[in-house]
Write a structure and sequence with these properties.
about 210 residues, mainly beta, Jelly Rolls, ten-stranded antiparallel β-sheet, seven-stranded antiparallel β-sheet, about 5% helix, globular
Amino acid sequence: MVDTSRRGFIAATASGACMLAGSQLVRSAGTEESFDFTRPLDGWETISGTWSIEDVPGASQGGRALVQRAVDKEYNVIVAPGGPYRDVQVSVRFKPISGREDASGGIVFHFAEGRYYVVRANALEDNFRFYLYDRGRRMLATASVQAPALGQWHTIQISAQGDRVQASLNDRALIDHRDTRFTMGRIGLWTKADSITAFDDLIVRRLGTAE
């Protein structure tokens, strides 16, 4: 199994990260990228939703995090600068703040031309799920979990290598699935419906050779 532990992401980033002048993107000396949510969202592409940098208790970067606040969309998606990526590992902390219909957060990957995969957790449901979106959503895999608590920080990690997708919630490996439909694209973040959710510590690691 590919090592998708958050400790591995953080240790490698700390070993060689440097800020690119005038950019929110932080790059390591190797193949990792992290994102500074204390800076403006330069280079990000909002697909849907209302996304902004805000003060959020418990955020690791000076108390600032990326928050999605729209409550009237079916899905809310923002795409990060950088990429596209083929084989990639992604880690993010998310904090479901509120939501009556939904209180979710997720990682988007292989985003291209409006199509993407997403792995998400929901504070109102006892499941952890992997979907594809192509003008409609289709569930590919699911795992039973204790619903992540509202108002607390949680961690999602994914690894996409070849046709294999693995995903973890709070360092617990839960999904191991194969799908060949989307092979390359950008990275993003996701919420659904009336979810108000904060995101922190987004770290991306390109696997293999650069595309």
